[in-house]
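To assess whether the prediction recovers the assembly geometry, we first specified each molecular entity separately, as shown.
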Amino acid sequence: MRVDVSSARGPYPVVVEPGALARAAAEIEAAAPDATARVIVTDENVDAHHGEALRERLRPSGVVVLPPGEEGKTFRAVEGLLDRLVEHGLDRRGVVVAAGGGVVTDLAGFAAAIHLRGVRSVLLPTSLLAMVDAAIGGKTGVDTPRGKNLVGAFWPPRLVLSDPALLGSLPRREWIGGLAEVVKTALIADASLFEELEATSVDALRADPRAAAGTVARCARAKAELCSRDERDDGERQLLNLGHTIGHALEAATGFRGLSHGEAVAVGLVTEARLAERLGLAADGLAARIAALCRRLELPVRGPAVEVAHVRSFLRADKKREGRALRFALPVAVGHVERVDVADEAAIDLALAEAVAESA
Amino acid sequence: MRVDVSSARGPYPVVVEPGALARAAAEIEAAAPDATARVIVTDENVDAHHGEALRERLRPSGVVVLPPGEEGKTFRAVEGLLDRLVEHGLDRRGVVVAAGGGVVTDLAGFAAAIHLRGVRSVLLPTSLLAMVDAAIGGKTGVDTPRGKNLVGAFWPPRLVLSDPALLGSLPRREWIGGLAEVVKTALIADASLFEELEATSVDALRADPRAAAGTVARCARAKAELCSRDERDDGERQLLNLGHTIGHALEAATGFRGLSHGEAVAVGLVTEARLAERLGLAADGLAARIAALCRRLELPVRGPAVEVAHVRSFLRADKKREGRALRFALPVAVGHVERVDVADEAAIDLALAEAVAESA
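The predicted structure of the complete assembly is given in tokenized form:
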């Protein structure tokens, strides 16, 4: 599958194909023919599995290996990475090649956006989450103690190359986290995918590379289309925030330690569906149906014990706030999501109370 | 004077007019009619002189007062500023109003570029240097220990409003620094301004607000036109690097303490003219003429004692490097500057040796 994403800096291809890593060098050459230097940015886990293949195939000017994990997605980490790019001689015509999950593509993409006021990036997502979501659409950034992705840039890459064969080495828990974004995308844009997911399981998907590759391609295409129509997230693209408004606040409220991103999104999907029901936007039963699919895919439907007021304080710092109301993407039905400004704080609090463990 | 600058994110006006600060609120309102919050970013010196007027006229949601000086233009300072923007409730539709010299407009402009992946900025330059150069063209960024502006973004403001009446409170040394950028602009684009400068003095300019306002307007227009034709600095805009390739390296090599930016640029202008003569691009005498004007305007023509090899190491990290050659903007004659890739390291070293004090 190959689809072009439109951006203010020109279109770029998203390629999803088992075995694509083998021709990464040629694809990068085509996307950035005059590149003076290529620096690979990756993390320790990806390096352990794919580092050798990446070095052999891409012959980089340098490799920067970051510690893994969302807790490393900080301003300080970007500062260190920028220093390393200078050390490796990455000048204005160099290319940053980010090989990893969403943390690596967000962080390295952001470093590319601000190194020498912007150099080109190429993304080689290695996790399910990055292949279906994080690597597509040009959003880059880091977390701050006040919330997720509060600092960043829109910086479209020159190429996104996904090789679903790499998912064979992805730990089971990361597979599960990525499936939260798959469920989200299906809810927004692909009702038949949602139904197929209702008839599968984590292990069935992991055991069937062809089915997994097909799922990645469908989600990547759906995201590419939304981002092409609304690069800067002023309109339709905001549908992709489904599950994330509450998910991000939960992640921040638990110090990015209680839940993985995907797990937080799953809780967010269920909670926002409950909010949609409470506001009369969705028919009763939608939240239960989403919760059943999440449970089937071994995703949580409720977060750890944390005070509702604490979660609410992070919602208030949300990028999507418009004056007093909070902007949500809320599910109306499977395959139909709408953007809604919610000023009803009581309804939000009730939904939040259901999103966290009862002991809180 | 009012001129529109083209940018990928749409045109924005640059206004130069004595007394313009009095109608800053209306101009900002016109440039960002739906703004939810306005946060003023300034420094202690500007706050002491103009803080009260700014607060009264703009009724901001918050004011962030930074310590003054180039040494504060760091990644850490941006991190702190981003936190303050969140504290002051600056959401996606808020506006960052940067009121100050080049350090403030570069730093606050960069914070605006990466806060919530980009919010609007308005620049109210208060120094001669910022009015004629730094505030125009959308370049934002910070220094790193490895060099000036190595980290940053192109982030066009929505409005640049210059009130030359504010220059009345500008310290004499800062006037002199700003004049280096005036000389640079005249060398590139305005031979008659260069000749007028050869017949004036620092005190004459400071004593004649009308002449000063006219000079600011001519330089601002020249810069606006170059940036409109080449926003991302891939071509013609690079002429504005005149004096800066060597100037930046000197600043970095002296730890940003030996020379002010303007002083470093003056040394750079003379040194690059000498390089142009040595390469046979400029007629003999041009460097002497530029040096005479710099001396007349009380600008240095030689930097402090520092090792040539040390300066060269910073030249090598320059953003404008293209492979092995260094890209310079070199003066051919007054009013005529050309971009030249210089691979002749001996010529560069000889020019550098003349740029630093003899004891080095």
